[in-house]
Amino acid sequence: MGTGATELNRKSRAAAARSRSASKWRIAWRNRDYYVLLIPGLLFLLLFKYTPLYGVLIAFQDFNIFDGIRGSEWVGLEQFHKLVRSEEFGQVFMNTLLISVYKIVLLFPVPILIALVLNEVRLMFFKRTIQTIIYLPHFLSWVIISGLFVTILSTSGGLVNNIIQWFGGEPVSFFVSNQYFRSLVVFTAGWKEVGWNAIVFIAAIAGIDQEQYEAASIDGAGRIRRMLHISLPGILPTVVLMFILRLGSVLDAGTEQILTMYNPVVYETADVIGTFVYRIGLGKMDYSFSTAVGLFNSVVGFILIVSGNYISRKLLKRGIW
Amino acid sequence: MTKRTKGDLLLDTGVYLFLIALGMIMLLPLASVFSKSVSEEWAITSGKVGILPVGFQLDTLMRVISSSMFIRAFCISAGVTLIGTLISILMTALTAYPLSKRNLPGISFCMVLFIFTMLFSGGLIPNYLLMRQLHLVDNLWVLILPGMISVFNMLVIKSYYESLPEALEESARIDGAKTYTILFRIILPLSMPVIATIALFYAVGYWNDYFGPMIYINDTALKTLQLYLQDVVMDANSANLTNKSIDDLMNMSPEGIRAATVVASTVPILLVYPFMQKYFIKGVLIGSVKG
């Protein structure tokens, strides 16, 4: 009886599979309107997102713009050897990591602190005003922010240098100082985004069950203890998720930001992978080498993001996809 | 009854001081640059302007706004922002719709195609070479076409569509409505809050974009506002480089001009900011809370 049943099962399964694949087409045909809606989006992807992936081939060539990809000479991994040997790239890679790690260590905790502190404010008017103010910089462009900071850090009558001089110090040219430039990059990045980045944590705190707070206060927990033992653990999963995502983009130290702020004097400390690709590729027209650097960046970034997401799915049962 | 303990008082004081300090740090650079843009020139050149304006004049601002370079750059940015936002929001809202039908054959594969582009890209040079081949360099369309759809924004809209009750569509279908009718008459109108939020993000993105124009626009007649602003800001900066005070080189204060240009380019954002505020918080929540 056992064999007969499996035989029957196998037959009906095969038939079901056949009719399933046929019905798949039928379902698709019946819903063709949906696929028509997809066409513009797919064409966009093909032209502007997938065609450049074919262009990545020039990283393996000695690309000449007149000969194109088909006519240029193939050189295998030579560009990557050049990359590994290049002292300049080593410097750029270190700058990228340093700036990025400073940004994570110094700036990542701030939005969490802001969210916890805002949650303790009972005056709605005050809370709203502060929120309005701290979200605002997010909407200003990097060029405007560079302009703002050039103005207040100017050596001729800028706010900060005036204060330094009041205290008897020497004025500092922050924008042309290899000593201070990285701090400037980290500080302005914080100025722009810490308030905005707090939104996620504010939302997470709002999602915590209010009964927990009531229970804790009946048990005699003060506000500080409620903050540390309810609010903080309550947003911990969000914190971990945001942290993993942040680590995934560690090779992006803020290309647009640095491009609007730096100048040849501070290349030594400020040149990051993104700005380096731009300088070498479009400035010096070394297309192949620059593409190799870009490809290196893309591959490492891809691995970081995919593994970050994997970890977060294992750890928290949620990820970005 | 909750009684206020010493610890509570300490906490409250700390909370308010921290937030006031934070607010001040955010506002000071803005206040300082605004003051410089409306202060008298002698006060700027002698370094007397701190947080508050010294004297009051609108000449510098007027001179900046009425310069033909500024007007042209402003109009180009406004045009790119307007047209770009319209195209982007239309493309994004329409593409998100079929992708929200997870059960359709082939749809999950299309999703993979979209998401992959978020994670991996060809990089700067292949993109630049493609734009050259398409004759889009020094063409304002280059600022719009390659960024028509932001996959992240599309995912936000898609998850909003998925949150709408399915019964809505079913009953419309029973009444004889076809896919497009359902989309345009039911789904899109119901999704206006999220669409408005995303439109806002696109608009801010187009208006603030610096990298795109810097790479693809060399023609001075096509400079966007951000490019023009960067010229003004960094001009004064390069004077710093040579350690020569630029005041010796020109008879009007470049500090004042720079501050006024920054203020004039910031005003549009500051004007719409209060109106957009009620939208963006909602939008961010929709985007971030999804697991």
Set out the fold topology.
The complex is a heterodimer of chains A (321) and B (291).
Chain A: H1 2-30, H2 32-55, E1 61-62, H3 68-71, E2 73-74, H4 78-85, H5 87-107, H6 109-119, H7 124-135, H8 142-153, H9 159-166, H10 181-206, H11 210-218, H12 223-248, H13 255-261, H14 267-270, H15 273-283, H16 287-316
Chain B: H1 6-38, H2 41-45, H3 59-66, H4 68-99, H5 107-119, H6 124-133, H7 151-163, H8 166-174, H9 179-190, H10 192-208, H11 211-216, H12 225-241, H13 254-289
Helix pairs in contact in B: 1-13, 3-13, 4-7, 4-10, 4-12, 8-9, 10-13, 12-13
Can you tag this structure with a few keywords?
A: 321 residues, mainly alpha, MetI-like fold, 2 domains, 1% strand, flat, B: 291 residues
What's the short story on this structure?
The complex is a heterodimer of chains A (321) and B (291). Chain A has 321 residues and is mainly α. Chain A is built from 16 helices and two strands.
Word description of this protein:
The complex is a heterodimer of chains A (321) and B (291). With 321 residues, chain A is an all-alpha fold. Chain A is built from 16 helices and two strands. Chain A has two domains: 3-73; 78-316, Orthogonal Bundle (MetI-like fold). Chain A has a two-stranded antiparallel ribbon with strand order 1-2. Chain A is flat. Chain B folds into two domains: 6-57, no CATH class; 61-288, MetI-like (MetI-like fold, Orthogonal Bundle), CATH 1.10.3720. Chain B is 73% helix and 0% strand. In chain B, helix 4 (68-99) runs antiparallel to helix 10. Classes of the chains: A mainly alpha (321), B mainly alpha (291). At the A-B interface, helix 1, helix 2, helix 6, helix 7 and helix 8 of A face helix 1, helix 4, helix 5, helix 6 and helix 9 of B. Chain A: Residues 93-308 form the ABC transmembrane type-1 domain. Chain A: InterPro entries: MetI-like, MetI-like_sf. Chain A: It is found in: Cell membrane; Membrane. Chain A: It comes from Paenibacillus graminis.
